[in-house]
Amino acid sequence: GLSQNTTYHFRIVAYNSSGTTYSSDMTFTTTSSVSAPSATTQAASSITSSSAQLNSYVNPNGGSTTIYFQYGLTSSYGNSSTSGNIGTSAGNYGTTVSGLSANTTYHFRIVAYNSGGTSYGSDMTFTTSGTAPSATTQAATAITASSAQLNSYVNPNGGSTTIYFQYGLTTSYGYTTTSGNIGTSAGNYGTTASGLSAN
Q: Of the residues 17, 103, 118, 160, which has the fewest C-beta atoms closer than 10 A?
C-alpha cells in the first residue's frame, strides 16, 4: 500500500525485559508502475510561409502525460510550444506554431513526460514556403519620341526575385524588357524601352 516513486525510512525495533533497541535508519524508494510515455515525431503539415502544424503520436503508457514541441533553426531548437496535458489517452497530437520566417528550414520534435519519465521524439525538419514578391508599377520618366524609362518598386519578400516589364499599345502588352535577377533586395527598379513610335 505504499506510494509510487516515494522514498521511505525504516528501522528495526527490538525489546525485551532489559530494554528496547533501535537500529540505524535506512531508506528505500518505491518504483513506478507507470512507464515513460512513448513519443513519435510525425511530419509537419499545413506549412505556409510563416506557420506550420507540428504533429506527433504519443502513448502515455498509463500515466497522466504532458506534451510540448521543441522547434528552431537547428537541432538545438531554442523554442517550445505551449505544453498541454493529454491525460492517459494515446493518439495523434499536434499544434500550430507561427511567426516563422519564409523559405526557412526548421527542426522540431515532440517531448512527452509523466511520472515514469521523459521521452523525446526523433528530430524532423520542414521548410516554410516563400512569399510572392510585391510589385508596384510607377510612372514612366525620361519620355522621348522613341523611348521611355519604365519604373517600379519591388519587394522580393525574402526570396531571390527576377523582374521584367511588359509594355505595348494595349493591356495585352505584346513586348517585354530583358529580365534581370534582383536577389532579395527591395527597391526601385527601372529600365529603358526603346524603338517606340512617336505620339
A: 17
pLDDT for res 21: 97
Which residues of the chain register pLDDT less than 50? none
Q: Which residues contact 90 (CB under 8 A, 6 or more apart)?
A: 57, 58, 59, 60
**Cell (9 digits) for 5:** 516513486
Question: In angstroms, rounded to a whole number, what is the distance separating the alpha carbons of residues 105 and 51?
Answer: 12
pLDDT of residue 132: 86
Between CA 101 and CA 98 the distance in angstroms is 9
Query: 21: burial class by Cβ within 10 Å (0-12, 13-18, 19+)?
Result: exposed
Q: Rounded to 5 degrees, what are φ and ψ at 34? A: -95, 130
Q: What's phi and psi for 85, nearest 5 deg? A: -90, 125
- Identify the sign of the CA torsion 58, 63, 68, 73: negative
Pick from 122, 125, 126: nearest CA to 41: 122
Name the helix (H) or strand (E) containing 139.
strand 134-141
pTM check: above 0.70: no
The DSSP string of 38-51 is EEEEEEEES--SSE
* CA-based end-to-end distance of the chain: 100
CA distances for 64 relative to 59, 91, 92, 94, angstroms: 10, 13, 16, 17
Output the CA angle 143-149-152, nearest 5 degrees: 135
Q: What integer pLDDT is reported at residue 79 of this predicted model?
A: 97
